[in-house]
Amino acid sequence: MSWTERLGTIGVWRGVGDVDAALAQTIEALGYGTLWQGGSPGADLRAAEDILDATSTLVVATGIVNIWKADAAELARSYRRIVAKHPGRLVLGIGSGHREATPERVRPLAAMAQYLDVLDEGGVPLDDRVLSALGPKMLALAADRSSGTHPYLTVPGQTRAMRAALGTGPLIAPEQTVVLDEDPATARETARAFLGRYLRMSNYTTSMKRSGFTDADVADGGSDRLIDGIVAHGSAQSLSAAVHAHLDAGADHVCIQVLPVAGDIVPTLRAVMAQRG
């Protein structure tokens, strides 16, 4: 089974505490293949288990389990418990967080390698785990010790570079933030409010500058050029085009994070899915 067959072409990224069983069932019914549980899901994976219990085909992926906050041995035990009930429907997205929010974050590459050693010992196969990799060293580790990468706040050019680096086999499943709003001024206001916290985190600003944005682009809340490049906004057709730009660049699967203009993400999810015909 290919990654696209397993995960679907398009998934949904949403905070782990922001999706209940009813919303998960709606996401599944709309045709999305995977729910990515954002933030830092706990090592017990109870939230993933609850969603899997409430649905029948939806894959649940963590996006991401933070290695500094979730015990690896407990995560492996939770993984085994869940896949015994729901084989093939759980993917562990794993990451090292960011320095500003995780003071204990030191030597993240070495720490990630040690974490993966514990998952190896705990019976978590490479096919069921991916790493959040923004830089080349973590991407190389993802290729060697997991099934691929789940990058956050990246652009299609980065997807293309990752595909060139990883070759044809590994999973590339980027997140794409979207705003269904055809007024550029209000859409940018929504996007800028969302991006503000990330523009104070060095791993994200470094990634943005690596992709071609400048110091000026990431300063003062982000330039319009950066806002438009990172957060797709406009009509449903425009949002769908942003998803397909990643797919055309080599992604296997793209998960959309909806910034709701009126509090409800379902209209956007329905509108984007309708563009697939």
UniProtKB/TrEMBL annotation:
<dbReference type="InterPro" id="IPR036661">
    <property type="entry name" value="Luciferase-like_sf"/>
</dbReference>
<protein>
    <submittedName>
        <fullName>LLM class F420-dependent oxidoreductase</fullName>
    </submittedName>
</protein>
<dbReference type="InterPro" id="IPR019922">
    <property type="entry name" value="Lucif-like_OxRdatse_MSMEG_4141"/>
</dbReference>
